[in-house]
Structure formats: C-alpha cells, structure tokens
Amino acid sequence: MIGILLNDTAYEQDIRELLMAFYPGETFVHEKQDDVDFYVEGTCTQNADETKFGLKITDPTGTVSDETVFPIDYDVRLNAKTTIKKELYGMLKKRTGKELPWGTLTGIRPTKIAMTRLDQGENEESIRSFMRDMYLTSKEKIDLSVEVAKRERELLSHIDYENGYSLYVGIPFCPTTCLYCSFTSYPIGAWEKKVHLYLKALFKELDYVAEKMKGRTLDTIYFGGGTPSYFGGDAIAIIMTAIRRCFDVTGDAEITFEANPDSVTDKLLHRMRAEGFNRVSLGVQDNHDAMLKKLGRPHTYAQTVAAFQKIRKAGFRNVSLDLMYGLPGQTLTEWQETLNDVLRMNPEHCSCYGLKIEEGTPFYDMKDVLNLPDDDTQADMYLAAVEILRDRGFRQYEVSNFARKGLYSRHNYKYWTGGEYLGFGPSASSDFAGKRFTLIADLQGYINGIRTGGDIMDDIQEIPLRERAGEYIMLRLRTNGGVDPQEYENTYMLPFAPLEAILRKHETYGRAVQNADGRWALTPKGYLVSNDIISDLLIAQDKAGGIKRG
C-alpha cells in the first residue's frame, strides 16, 4: 500500500497514474496509516514571483529517502503536470531500478501527441526529440507512436473533424403503429395522397438551412422515422438528391436508412444503393412470431431472414439489427435463443434495447396485465446480451449498441459524444452552434408552418456551460470511451476530483473502471445502475465550484 499526501490535489491523478505504472495492482491511501509501504508527499508553494512543487518519498517512520523541489508553471496545467511527473519518474526509477517504455505517458494516447504535432507541420525527428525529452519515452515506443499516427492520419485525413456534422431526416410514416411505439408516425395509407405536401415542406426546410451551412461538410446522414422503407425508394431518392444539391456531403459519408423486414424489396434496395446508401438498420425485435404479433409488429421472423438475405445480395456490407428484451412473458432462455438465432445471419452491428413502457402508447394502458419480466430477470437478459455478443466478436461501444471492429454507428456516436447534428421533419431535434431545438410533432402543423413562414419550433434553448458539463457526463458514460478528466476540466472549468471520488467507490464494486489512458468508463454491471451513478455525479458537480486559475 502506498500513501499519497498532497497539500494541493490538482495533480493527484497524474501522480497516482505514474505510481500505478511502476507498482501495478497496488492500492493507495491519502492519510497516515500503519500498513503503508511508503509515502509520496507533494507540497505546492506559491508567492508573487513563482510557484514551486516539492516531492519527497518517506517511510512510515517519517525518514526521507528522496527529496526534490522545483519550479512549475502552475497557470498552464499541461506544463505543470509534465514537470511534476518527470521529477517523480526520476525518483521512482531510482527507487525501483525500472524504466517504463512509455516514460511518463500514462493519461493520454501517445499517438495523439504525434498526430497533433504532425498536423502542426513538425517533422518526424522533431517529434521524436520532443517525446524523448518531454516524456522520457523509449525509442521503440516513440517509433511506434509516430508510425501509428502516420497511418491514422492517412486513413482519417478525409474526415473534417472541425466542421463535420450529421443530418437526420424523419420519415413520419408507418402502415400501423406498434403497441410500444412512442415515436411520431402517421398511417401512410391515410397520407398517401398528401405525401407530396410533406416533401415540399421538407425541401423548403433543407434549402433554408443549407444557406447557413456553407463551408461545412456533412459526414453522416440517417433516415429514420416512422419507417423509411415504407416510404419507397423513389421518394427517398428525391430527398437524397435534394440533400446532395444543398449540402457538401463527404465522399465517405455514412448514409443509413431504417427498414422493416416486410417492406424490404429488391427494387428498394437497388435504388438505395444507387443513391449512395451504405448502411441498413433492420427492425427485427424478436425471432418468435407469437411475440412479434404481441408487440404489434407487421412482420414474421421468416420475413426478417429473407430481408437480410436480400440486403446482402444488394451489396450492403454494414447491416444493423434492432432487438428488444424485457418483452411481455419473455424468459431469459427465450432471449438467449433470439440472440443466438439472429446472430446466425452474421450482422455487423446489433442494438439491444430493453422495452420501455411509454405514456401515450397502447402498452401503457395495458401495463398492469403485460406480465413483464422482473427487474432481476431484465438485468440477467442485458448481461446475457453482453456476454453472447462479446463471445461472437462484437465490441460494446455504447450501453445498448454492439459492433464488429470499425463498424460502429458513426451517426449515433455523434449524439453520444457531443457532436453537432441537424434534424429535419416533425419532432426532429438538432444540436448546433451551442443551441438545441426541436420541431413540432404535428405533421400538418409542420407543413402549414413551413408553407406560411410560421413557427415550427416546439422548443429552442441555449445550453449553459455547466449544463453541457452534465450532458458530457451523461452521454459519455453511455459509451465505452467514457469521460476524460482532463478534457472535462479544460472544457468546462470544473474540478473532476469530486466526481472521481464517486467513480472510485463504484470501481470497488466492479461498476466503473479507469482505462489505461486515464478515462473513466462504466462496466456492464455499471450500465445496469447507470442512472443512479450519473445522478450522484451530477449532484457532486452541482456542489462543486469552478476551477480557479492563477
């Protein structure tokens, strides 16, 4: 056990990470205890002229085995932590006789350093010298970082990180409404003769917004609903033509449409491929026809298998299957059977959602007689999905989403990581230029509003920075990437230490984990109680004051 005693906790995480690298598996305390092997003591002193940081290593009796005092640039966190870690590295190297291949690099992806400096125009030799002098990194690891950075830079050079954004098109039509569905949809049969009115309004909205997007590149497009496949290939093609005319779409854009198995035809798929669609999200939900009927789904499982085969034959190599668990009368064994059966089709992506009973749906009125699995069974279903999909080569990159390597949903990932997106159509939401806005749900009201120049906004708000910080925590903890303490502090000017204390508590129960790069993420066990964890984190954030500079 190692003690860490600091009079300034601003660099506690950095010191602990370096100690963990030298002493893997060791535990840490922050007070005097009898069973501590040694203490690392840090003392920060400031005056008008300079700030100094003192480090010393002592045994439990107080005997000093090593000690140093040095100036730090306290106002620039990166400079200060780099200096502290270099000094501590030298002390730990002397104490253990070990050198770390990555030097002092513990809380950042090394490739990022190399790539950033390549982007700034530095040559390779300059980067190698910088990493050697600044982080004490070995030649072997520096070579690896530079080579990986060069490959990543080449592969990703076409992506516009600064200006790229996403576009969502809502197709608010379905033949019928599923008994659990709370999304905005209208019976396509009743609207068949008025679809042109919706298209006219949509084109006008696209034209208006496009004028404001000059110079920005669009790198993901998603057609959802409703169910776009019922809308037909010709109508969707017309919309895609308008989008390409209005917006600067990247050549490698991810373009997705949602489909229901009973509406998938060869004609539709060939038209979608011709229009540049390269991803399909197929609404499967379950593999038992009796359950599908109970949900109000209009398809059979045989139609699902047939639709998937058609999708493959049409040339789609990125297919996502939507599944649901926690269904009325569903057992754990039945859910496991569903997963194993569905995975025989060999999709690239799976979304596994627990059934939610939403107010305003037929299921809400039936909730007392639905015979839903209890909470423990639903938790077992979730963990079963995680295990089965992992064993079949899928990586869980978000609470409910699993993908084979490199095939996660780029569009949805933007929502979860705070990217900018624009939504078109009734009920569509956007988050752009610091503002979030949602369009009205009423289809006729949407059409009339655009035709007459009236207000089609249901809600619009500018999100304060502290609220954005809360969203960062909520959304990022949905993903396997988790939250970056340094990014959080630098972006939102809030201390991460109170949040880290909570995450460390959950770490002891196997609900949270700190990755090798210093980021905090939830485990599958943590996802099960994520609402409680996030609530505690947001309360701690509300109580915390801002970070003082200077």
Overview of this protein structure:
The chain has four domains: 2-96, Rossmann fold, CATH 3.40.50; 110-156, no CATH class; 165-424, Aldolase class I (TIM Barrel); 482-550, no CATH class. The protein is built from 22 helices and 21 strands. Strands 14-15-13-12-11-10-9-6-16 form a nine-stranded mixed sheet, with helices on both faces. A five-stranded mixed sheet has the order 2-1-3-4-5, covered by helices on one side. The longest helix is centred in the N-terminal third of the chain and has 20 residues, at 77-96. It starts with a strand and ends in a 7-residue tail after the last helix. Mean pLDDT is 88; it is low at 155-161.
Number of helices: 22
What structural class results from the helix and strand content? Answer: alpha/beta
Strand content: 15-25%
Question: Do you know the CATH topology of the largest domain?
Answer: TIM Barrel
What is Rg? 27 Å
Shape by Cα distribution:
elongated
- Largest sheet data: 9 strands, mixed
The domain count comes to: 4
Uncertain residue ranges: 155-161
Question: How would the blueprint of this fold be written?
Answer:
Elements: E1 2-6, H1 12-22, E2 28-29, E3 38-46, E4 51-58, E5 64-72, H2 77-96, H3 110-119, H4 124-135, H5 139-156, E6 165-171, E7 173-174, E8 186-187, H6 188-191, H7 195-211, E9 217-225, H8 228-231, H9 233-246, E10 248-259, H10 266-274, E11 279-285, H11 289-295, H12 301-313, E12 319-325, H13 332-343, E13 349-354, H14 362-365, H15 375-391, E14 395-398, E15 401-403, H16 410-416, E16 421-424, E17 429-432, E18 435-439, H17 443-452, E19 457-462, H18 465-476, H19 485-492, H20 497-507, E20 512-514, E21 520-522, H21 524-528, H22 530-543
Parallel strand pairs: 1-2, 1-3, 6-9, 6-16, 7-8, 9-10, 10-11, 11-12, 12-13
Antiparallel strand pairs: 3-4, 4-5, 13-15, 14-15, 17-18, 18-19, 20-21
